[in-house]
Amino acid sequence: MRKIILLLSAICLLIAPAPLKASSPEGSPLYLLPAPGAANVSPATSLALRQGDPFDHLPDEDAFTVTGSRGGYYSGEMRLSDDRLTLLFYPEKPFAFDETVTVAIRPGLKTAAGIAIPATTYQFYTLQRPLERVVLPSEDGEIAATYSITETASPYITHPEFTSVMPITVTSPAQNTGDGFLFMTGLTYQAMMMVDNTGEPYFIKQVPEGYAVTDFKRQIVQSTPYLSYHEGISSNAGWSNGVYHVMDQSYNVVDTWTIGNGYGADLHDFQMLDNGHALMISYTPIPYDLRPYGGPKNGIVIDAVLQEQDSGKNVVFEWHASQHLPITDSYDDLSNSPVDYVHTNAIDVDLDGNLLVSNRNTSSVVKVNRQTGNVIWILGGRRNQFVFTNDLRFSRQHDIRRLANGNITLFDNGNDKFPPRSRAVEYEMNEAARRVTRVWQYPEGDSYFAPFMGNVQRLGNGNTVIGWGAVPGVTEVRPDNSKGIELELGGSPYRVFRFPWDGVPAESPRAAVVGNGTLGQVTVYASWNGATDVDAYEVYAGPTSQEMSMITTVPRSGFETSVALAGLSDDTCAFQVRPVNHDGQPAPYSNVAWRVEHPACQSLLNWSYLPLIVK
Question: Where are the domains of the chain?
Answer without folding.
Answer: 31-125, 141-499, 510-609
